[in-house]
Write a structure and sequence with these properties.
The structure is a homodimer. By secondary structure, chain A is mainly beta. Helix content of chain A is 9%, strand content 31%. In chain A, a hairpin with a 5-residue loop joins β4 and β5. The structure holds molybdenum atom (2 copies). The site of one molybdenum atom has 6 residues of chain A, from loops.
Chain lengths: 387, 387
């Protein structure tokens, strides 16, 4: 796709990127990749827009919202072009609280076993917002004529999103059309106009699904019999391999299904690694989340390598709808330090159980994979007790 | 509910239970609880009706299909009563291949750590059939008037199923009404009339969800603002606890969400434990399955405690629809025996990854729970190589 006009005369395509909050943890700047620091992660259940994690593949496209056009097309549709006002005026505004997580979140823990490829994220490639916009399914069905009959007649299997930055990704038609899928064409983030950093004027929100499918600056929505092309969908960027795969030679990457829903995740936000605890109880807090809208049913915390557990109290987010728990759940636990650990170093660890009773794997080794994706083993924080 | 008339004059309510295949592994007879033996498990992808696992709570109700009536009622509906012919003639026949698994499957492995309560199942409390019947959602929407508008207006949250044997269970309204949920009122099993053993004339099939919600001999379907009552829904029978819970005193069982979708599962069907292998490779085969229609994306096999893995070839079931992979996937792997294991005893183990990249936990200890539910740790089979 052509670079936006605003940038045509500029030698450096990143010069027009937005100003960024200095408290973010920057991994790259061109393109920008930055994570939410743990100190700010649980200040509010909805992450403030300026400290949201950033995961870009290209410069931020700059565009006047007045000039924005969204083309909806592809098999089984009658092609339509909508401007931002069309979306706002012709469809009901819908709001969905959803957490987005990069598929590479916590990759740095896998890198400690053996280097993977990709950004060495901590656990902050993850944030939550209340998104405002329109249901993609209402636009597809009521405006672009993509009825269930057409889906069947034309064998529509995927909906492809093309970003104005050059990104391209797709989701299965079932997720796009399900009355319980809650996929949005979003133009608001936490009650404000969507910032250009996060996809203005319009981005896709695919709740419960890996970040990369939530295409920002979306310009084109295409119903298709095939998945999107390119590295993020059919290529290796979001494919999960066995720990035995150390190079791609001989692997038919296109035969491996692309990642969509993510597995259950949790992390300890406080205490931080290396903390010194002086009280008789360790006050632990963190978040938990799972893909596919699966709510969190339990979080357990241990300071003795999982021999005994304290079940955490679930707080913000615990009462989300069944299989539509798109946002994280916060939790806290108070873990008594037994006599034998007083004055010693030990590790605090947590694990969550989701509504399908999926659990987190115990160790990172068996889930190590070449691309460093889906690191969701028990989260471990070494601390020291001081009498 | 009253006992069926056919049994009113009989002192022993189990006398009219059907004849059963002697090859089943019987745990109880009154009521009958029997599992599919591993020798028969992979003879065909669809389990033959006579060897299907049986999990009853009561005597098998005996009834003339002519006398069968299904009452559909509850908030947001206009009550209707349908006979079997109504179901067959007034609705399109739908077919769904689905695996059912008891929530207690593999409980015996947890009992080895510490006794749980319930039937000590091996891995055979699980079978697969092609079910024929009608979509529950089409009956609810097109015949009983349960529109999406009524669901919202009357705050319908659950659909309760009442079996003529006295069982009662419910599922969330989203699963019942989703165009991708595939919930059936089934009257056929593998192309034959549903056997009385498995719920004739009509049972519920809730694909991707724990066996107990698939109510047999269903007589009543009730739209409700509340879950079903009784031990199987609100009570402790299908609630997952932390390993620390050793007794129910002090636990508010109703506050724990009831089980629906099951986590990813797999097991080694061949070789059997104690086998002696004489070749240079161990030929391993088994099945994998996950709840919620999540397909199997990979199965790994190891003979060195997970230090190295051989990725299995997926065979029957590998090409099911996205998030509607309701039936199990068979797999096989050929694992070379390295020199250091030749002539030795070792353990073959397997683990599966589902479409949400959920994995199986490594050990049973961290998932031990009082009711012995959801045992899905890596499946382990000790064998011996003989030179
Ligand atoms: Mo990502
Ligand atoms: Mo069960």
């Amino acid at each position: 796709s052509d670079p936006p006009a605003a940038r045509a005369s500029c030698d450096c395509p990143y010069d027009s990127d937005p100003e960024r909050h200095p408290g973010l943890i920057f991994h790259n700047n061109k393109p920008c990749n930055a994570e939410l620091p743990s100190e700010l992660m649980m200040d509010s259940w909805l992450t403030p827009n300026p400290v949201w994690f950033i995961r870009h593949h290209h410069p931020v496209p700059v565009m006047d919202p007045e000039d924005y056009r969204l083309c909806i097309e592809g098999v089984g549709t009658k092609a339509v072009t909508l401007c931002l006002e069309d979306l706002k005026k012709r469809f009901l505004k819908r709001e969905v609280c959803a957490t987005l997580q990069c598929g590479g979140n916590r990759r740095s823990e896998l890198d400690q076993i053996e280097k993977t490829s990709g950004i060495p994220w901590g656990f902050g490639a993850m944030s939550t917002a209340r998104w405002g916009g329109v249901y993609l399914r209402e636009v597809l069905q009521h405006c672009a004529g993509l009825s269930h009959e057409n889906v069947e007649a034309f064998d529509v299997k995927h909906v492809i999103f093309k970003g104005m930055d050059g990104m391209e990704a797709s989701i299965p038609i079932e997720k796009a059309l399900s009355p319980y899928g809650d996929v949005l064409l979003a133009y608001e983030m936490n009650g404000e106009a969507l910032p250009s950093e996060h996809g203005a004027p319009v981005r896709v929100i695919v709740p419960g699904v890996v970040g990369v499918r939530n295409v920002k600056w979306v310009g084109r929505v295409v119903a298709s019999t095939e998945e999107a092309e390119g590295p993020w969908q059919r290529g290796l960027a979001y494919k999960g391999f066995s720990p035995m795969v150390k190079e791609l030679q001989g692997i038919d990457v296109e035969k491996i299904p692309s990642m969509h829903e993510l597995p259950v995740q949790s992390a300890i936000v406080s205490p931080k690694a290396g903390s010194i605890i002086e009280l008789d109880d360790v006050e632990v807090k963190g978040f938990a989340w799972s893909g596919g809208g699966r709510g969190i049913v339990r979080v357990d915390v241990s300071i003795d390598e999982g021999k005994t557990w304290v079940t955490a109290e679930l707080t913000n987010g615990k009462d989300q709808d069944y299989n539509r728990a798109w946002a994280w759940t916060f939790w806290e636990a108070s873990v008594p330090v037994p006599e034998e650990l007083q004055g010693k170093e030990f590790t605090v660890l947590c694990r969550a159980v989701d509504a399908a009773y999926s659990t987190q794997p115990e160790r990172p080794e068996p889930l190590w994979n070449l691309r460093g994706l889906n690191c969701n083993c028990w989260h471990r924080v070494p601390i020291r007790h001081q009498e």
